[in-house]
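for the writeup, i need someone to sanity check this before i put it in the appendix. the sequnce is what the collaborator sent (i think, or maybe the updated version? ugh). structure was predicted straight from it, no edits. if anything looks off just tell me and ill rerun, i have time this weekend
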Amino acid sequence: MQQLTDEQLVEELRFRLEQSRKSLNDLSVVNRKLVEMNRKLEESEALKSNFLSNIRNEINNPLNAIIGLAEQLAVIVKKPEVSELVTMLFSEAFNLDFQLRNIFVAAELEAGESEPTIEQVEVGSVVQGVLDNFGPQASGKNITLRATPSGSEADLQLFFPTDAQMLQVITANLVANAIEFSPPGSEVVVQYSCDEEALHLQVKDQGIGIAETDMKRIFDRFVQLDTGSTRAYHGHGLGLSVVSSLLDLLQGQVQVNSTPGMGSLFTVTIPPAPFDAENMTFAEGGNLFLFDQMEEK
């Protein structure tokens, strides 16, 4: 092994020191670029969040005005032909509003901006509020909507610690789905109960049913079992995926029992959320939820 002279050793140390300096400089440059990239990503997320909030307001406000005016006209106008047109106007505006809100909820879920806000929720009020809001759509198909509390507390107010807005959106999408796929003259029943372990919510229809091979697919985003230009049913395939995603946030689950031609039964189970009893708020106004915006989380 050749022994290095002092000069060679010093030169080697200088070379390695210079290499280390270059490496440190390169790391510093990379670090600055990463910091700048992170800043731009944060700005992009903030812009996206602001865009969603702004576009939601710009669309929802005029739609709410149209819906409100259509409701007033339906009461005032007595001529059958005009009343029918007003009813159609309200129905189309309501459907558009509902679908847009699903899109906004899905976008917030995708962006990771949805977090549960826990309140003591009066479950029956939320359920009845959803049925009241979907009453005109059901009436248009001569479908009966019915809510039935069950269990030992059937005659009492059922308060449960969860997110009122998310529970409303889950219920609304299941009811909307049941109405869409049910035949005229049928019935949609929402049954609910609470105990110490969970909130139980069932939506039963007498619709077309779902084949066993399609059970898992119906909760995938944008999936529609009825496709093509001649499809008989409306929607964009977001509703049930929104239900599934919101239940994930609430640590709940949904199960489906269905037979083609015999209707479907969707069963939702939500565990009670941890809460601070001293600072707990109460949510009782079922009709407030559907047309209120999802709270900024």
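The domain at 118-288 is CATH 3.30.565.10 (Heat Shock Protein 90). Confidence is low (pLDDT under 50) at residues 227-232, 286-297.
thx in advance!!
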